[in-house]
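quick one before i forget lol
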Amino acid sequence: MGQQHTIYSVTLGKNDHINLAKLCVGAESIADLEAWIKRRAAERGDAFRHVHVTRMWPRQATQVLAGGSLYWVIKGAVQCRQKILSLEEVIGADGIRRCAIVMDPEVVRTANAPRRPFQGWRYLKPDDAPPD
């Protein structure tokens, strides 16, 4: 399967970032997410990054890469986050461009913050993000 990777990263000011929020489909708990991350890392042989591939590329990529995290919604509430390290362009054998969100494998627990179901991901301003 031919894949092409292009890595993007950027550094801006301390509060110039934006976060992403995404449903953690199939996870019943933070422990489920952590187990999935460890299993995927073992399969890839890379314990230093967790990758989630999505169809859409963030239009606010520069702000996401300026210190943003991916906040995981589990069982109807934001419960944890992972620091976003980079965005990589992935083009599969089907020729479709996708975005690989590369994250630190460390899962940081946050205060629970209720969220209604949604598709894809949503931007989450730092002031609206639950505290660690």
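fyi Helices lie at 30-44, 61-64.
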